[in-house]
Amino acid sequence: MQGLTRPDLKQIYERGLRDFETARTLAELEDLRVRYLGRKAELTNLLRSIPELPQQERPEVGRFGNLVKRELEQALESARKDLEQAELAKGLEKDRVDVTLPGRPWPLGHLHLIEQTRREIEDIFVGLGYDVVQGPEIETDYHNFEALNHPEDHPARSLHDTFFVDETILLRTHTSPVQVRVMEQQPPPLYLIAPGKTYRRDSDATHTPMFHQVEGLVVDRGVTLADLKGTLDTFAKKMFGEERQIRLRPHYFPFTEPSVEVDVSCMACNGQGCRLCKRSGWLEILGAGMVDPNVFGFVGIDPEEYSGFAFGMGVERIAMLKYGVTDLRLFYENDLRFLRQF
Ligand code: PHE
User: Fold this and answer.
1) How far apart are CA 183 and CA 187, in angstroms?
2) Is the CB of 256 under 6 A from ligand 1?
3) Is residue 170 packed enough to be buried (19+ CB in 10 Å), middle (13-18) or exposed (0-12)?
4) Does the beta carbon of 312 lie inside 6 Å of ligand 1?
5) Strands 246-253, 138-140: parallel, antiparallel or unpaired by DSSP?
6) What per-residue confidence (pLDDT) applies to 36?
7) φ, ψ for residue 210 (rounded to 5)?
8) Ligand 1 centroid vs 215 CA: distance in angstroms?
9) Is residue 211 within 6 Å of ligand 1 at its C-beta?
């Protein structure tokens, strides 16, 4: 290469600086490095040709050429640092999480209203010192009917009302057989509730083939109807509000004597009379009574020594009254618009 001059070098230097500055990516910059400082670059070739220059020009061109090379290397290095910074910043910006944005709500399930209500009932009686027990849903005719003093021809025993598995096995029609099972196995004193599923051959706006009951049983010395009334009054106030009152109406159940139906003063009108309570001011919430001595006879408890009371309530009915649900079937249709309200 002939005629290498300072102006040639100067031109390379100025072009290089400009190009390094305008490079937009590290890849572009690498291309420029190869072009200006690589083994086949113009500058490299020029420097390599110095020995061919006239003797007196060599020191001057050599010094200046090396200066240009160093300067270009430094400019390249600083351009590389700038680009690296910029690419890092761009990456961070892209992956940025704005922690001040509101979070996405995570849908959370909750207990079904029937289960919630069952637990509310349970909590009240557990608070009064009652035990919670369970019995089988597939029962014997003996526990569901016979030991509960149902006469042979009692209507509940008919195919019309009861799901029979065979002659002597059936789906329990109430939770009362748990009374019998516990009394068979445990001596008094007994203070217990028995929540669970029950089955009857019924299906309309106010009946479903499966529903839930909570049974209550107390057997001890000197238990009276006043104890039953006081207990249920406490329950009604805790469940439906302190202003609530209860009343007992005479009724009939085969396994209690006397038997009562228990009403609570209407929570919609505070007992004044409205559509919900059909103008009566009262709503029926459960059946109850004093344990019939005949039942004690079946389980071997001495009715001279012990007395007791029992009650049974429908969980669906309690939930409907407490939460203003007007159609029983809503509980079993799994419509989330209904379920999510509770
Ligand atoms: N087992 C009765 C029913 O299902 C309710 C009840 C329970 C009544 C305990 C009295 C005592 O209707």
Assistant:
1) 7
2) yes
3) buried
4) yes
5) unpaired
6) 93
7) -120, 135
8) 7
9) no
Half-sphere exposure of 14 toward its Cβ, with a 13 Å CA cutoff?
A: 6
Tokens read off for 262: 């228990």
* Cα-to-centroid distance, 332 and ligand 1 (Å): 23
The per-residue pLDDT for range 99-116, each reduced to its tens digit, is 899 988 888 899 999 999
CA of 254 to the centre of ligand 1 (A): 9
Characterize the bridge pairing of strands 131-132 and 190-199: parallel
Q: What is the pLDDT of residue 1?
A: 41
Ligand 1 neighbourhood includes 310 CB (under 6 angstroms): yes
- State whether the beta carbon of 145 lies less than 6 angstroms from ligand 1: no
What is the number of the ligand 1 atom nearest to the C-alpha of 198? 4
Q: Dump pLDDT digits (tens) for 280-294.
A: 999 999 999 999 999
User: Is the Cα torsion angle 192, 196, 199, 200 positive or negative in sign?
Assistant: positive
- Report cis status (omega within 30 of 0) of the bond before 189: yes
